[in-house]
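Session log. Operator J.P. requested a structure for one protein chain; no other inputs attached. Running the standard single-chain path with token output.
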Amino acid sequence: MDSLIAASARALAAGDALGALKRVALRDDPPALALRGIAMAQLGEHPRARELLRRAARGFGAHEELARARCVVAEAEVALAVRDLGSSPRSLAAALATLEAHADHANALQARLIAARKLLLLGRLDEAEAALARLDTHGLPPSLAAVAELAAAELALRSLRIEPARAALARAHEAAARARVPALLAEVAEARTALDRPAARRLFAGGEQALRLDEVAALLASDTLVVDACRRGLGVGAAWRPLARRPVLFALARALAEAWPGDIDRETLIACAFHTRRPDESHRARLRVELGRLRALVTELAHIEATARGFVLRPHGERAVVVLAPPIDGDQASLAALLADGAAWSTSALALALGASQRTIQRALLELEAAGRVRSIGQARTRRWLSPPLAAFTTILLLPASLQME
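Structure written below.
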């Protein structure tokens, strides 16, 4: 490695992308192309970065498989940054095998971190937890250790394990301080603010109360019957009844909980569940059927009793009933939460993360765009969607597949 390449690599490790480019900007040999690609990625020029990294990978000879593997990992990092979530994991897995065979532990850890962070974005929390459990950050560069701790903190937050999240964020801050990379320190600081921002709303008769993540965790662990509009279900403590795939039952449960301790009339229940303003006998018959299904589902937690004008929710014992609502309302709340990370998402990546069809995502984006909440850049296949950060609250509870308990 010549002196300019070594100096450029040191500048990149310190987060000085411009300093790295000054040393290799006019060179087209594969090592210089790789460093230029990484520098361009740090400056936010992701399409150019991917092009340079691919050229570098092609430029390395047949006997330079380690260098090619490093380029593949760097390109995978850029793909994650531009939310290209549909790419095959095979090339990254092959690069990881090459790096481990050559005992390049730092870049092997980087590859594993990219795979784990992709799983987090897709909401596959169990797989992400297993991937993070296999990481060994001992003796590695502090910048990588900080990224690993950030991923562990995000996993803990999305599972509402508040104290492990605080500990992981403290370790991430310590590692970022040792790395002395301003962008990394800013990312850790932003992650720590999630603990202090409102994460949900507790609805009750006559008003609402904003709750932080630790308060949400305490509420869910209490003896209160919680109808959770963030996860679409209801439960008491460890007992949980998921209703995410049964929207009519969840609408009925929420309406009954919002009316508690009083009852709610049949016409209002029909409007909430079936979205009609002109109920007839068929709607009333269907209401009886759906309430029967809801009764059977929650029989261990509460009773649903008929009254003169409608129905009332009666929890077992002396329990209170609380509706836990997301910090923002609307059918596109999870979509807005994904876009709030500041990255440019494609509709295909959003559909993959949310488990919805691409056409459904496109319709929702057009509605958000009409409301001025998102904007698009590019055209056709290169079109991406952006949203300003939601600084007033954290979107942890709105992210896809968070707190899966089905």
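Operator note: The chain is about 55% helix and 10% strand.
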